Amino acid sequence: MLKEFADFLRLQLADPKDIVSRFGSDEFIFLKRSIIEQNIVKFTRNTIEKIRQKSFKIDGQEIFLKASAGIVLYPKDSDNINTLVNYAQASCRKAKQLGKNQCVFFNNSIYEEFINGFMLTNKIIHGIEFEEFELYFQPIYNTHSKAITHAEALIRWNHLEKGLLSPFYFIPFAESSDLIEKLDFYVLEKALESINEIIKEGLKIIISVNITGRTFLTDNFLDTFIVLIDKYKTDPGFIKIELTESIALSDENKTIQKMQALRNLGINFSMDDFGTGYSSILSLKKFPFSNIKLDQNYIMDLQNNQESAIISSHMLSMLNELNFETRRHRKRVSFLSF
């Protein structure tokens, strides 16, 4: 497909002096000569739109692509070819972060952000390699059995220089890159290892692990997860995967298929932050979730906000009727008990 795509790009060049060349795995460089700044924007946007509309066929399947472009100007931005390429990469990365099918002109702040991101990438990779990331377990109290039956695995970074860092410092960046998959599998592996240690202590506590949609929907997630379970000889019944509402809605068929395959192994699922998306309570029955976690915005101020209390009570009532377990803050149990 890359060859077909490269041929397609060459057709976009009107001037024989212009050059298009493959630079990376899925990256190409355009070299446009004698073009004014206003026209380069028009050319780039038109090219992106043509790519978006163009279909490529692989094994009889029709594939549509997305494109992002970073624009640098010679000699305005630099007169050094290596510097221009670095600037173009930084601008292209910024375009991808904006949602793809975008083009972005280079500026110094973009390159500074790119360099900082590059340094953070190396530090995260180093942190994973040397196990600087640690799991902390937040207990989950069962209001019926009056006991702690579950715990949620929360990742923290025990940074050598900055000390203990919360996920807000590194997760958003990791989610914008391939690093999130490395972190997700790191957490899964550490959770499986911890489950065995907890069982040895005589405790039977199910551990919940948050998995991002990007990782869960990758083709290798299921196989890699099964390999990890076999490696640690962990009872699958002691692990629960938490997925957000947005993941379930992004690709229903693929999500349900993967969930069902893991349910067949004895792994349960929890929906996290329910109420932040647009799914209805009845639509949840399509998915094999065993319990639902309401978004905190619904329950943070129940005693003082009558509207939130009414909405939460009705939601919990319907979820209970549909045989879903629900999680809520212990201090608010009496307020919402059924």
UniProtKB/TrEMBL annotation:
Residues 117-338 form the EAL domain. It comes from Desulfurella multipotens. It holds the Pfam family EAL. This is Diguanylate cyclase (GGDEF) domain-containing protein. Residues 1-108 form the GGDEF domain. InterPro entries: Biofilm_reg_signaling, EAL_dom, EAL_sf, GGDEF_dom, Nucleotide_cyclase, Rev_trsase/Diguanyl_cyclase.
